[in-house]
Amino acid sequence: MSHQAQPTPRPAEAVEHVTPQLDFDGTTPYEDYVHADVLTHLQHLLSDDPGEMVFLVTTQVMELWFTCLVHEWETASRALRADDVPTAIAALKRSVRELEALNASWRPLAQLTPAQFNSYRGALGEGSGFQSAMYRRVEFLLGEKSASMLVPHRGAPRAHRELEKALHEPSLYDEVLRLLARRGYAIPDEVLGRDVAQRHEPSPAVEAAWADIYAGDGPEDLVRLGEVLTDVAELVWRWRNDHLVATRRAMGAKPGTGGSAGVAWLEKRAQTYVFPELWTARSYV
Ligand code: HEM
Fold it and tell me: Can you tell me which residues bind substrate (predicted)?
């Protein structure tokens, strides 16, 4: 763990005898910072199946990555609002590495057989990732807004409050498009003044703006912004598709624990493109 005061290096010959500190008055400074004792005792298993642990831990790990992504994209949104493109790009680049780690965490669940999944599926009852409030904030920041997604969280005041706030705030992509307008691109009023609680609908004018930026005469910082947003979009699409394939392997065409049609419903969700004009503009460059 790094501390503000930088320690003075010891002479090389003395170094190997220096052992870590063992005595602390209360809990360790590590515990005070990481809360590892809380974090490693949140695994309340509901079945006797030994495979349930990795299912629960993977889900919890993904929740933590969702939390990190929300933090980065809120940082990027604030920076864009202040016309600070370098800070926004730095946060988005961090989020790209985090998305890679998030996607890598599918590995332990990617090859579940239906029999393995069945061993604890019953214990989940109607529980489903569909009810993840943090995933919903991820989607809201990407522009995938929907008031009905607040309904499952009525019984959880904090999650509901945070989601309601996120619903009515401009998404990361709204902030990007507002920045493009301030930088002289012809983003129409109906895009800039849209009801931000609704899903972002693809706009031909936005597509034209990205095509201009990518055509080579656009400012270099906006090209870099477009590319890091495309990285984000691609990795979110990969997360959705890895989830879809893992689900198809684990349960075929059975209905989901959350009550949806399962794979058929996820397939439809995985077809939507994040930041759609960043993809379609490529045909016109
Ligand atoms: C291999 C194990 C998994 C299976 C079989 C599975 C299955 C499903 C299904 C069928 C749905 C559709 C809703 C429903 O009816 O339940 C769904 C949604 C969802 N799952 Fe999973 N899931 C798995 C693992 C995970 C994990 C580890 C996470 C991490 C948090 C997760 C997060 C989500 C999210 C966020 C949604 C909502 C997606 C959306 O709204 O577009 N799932 N899952």
Answer: 121, 257
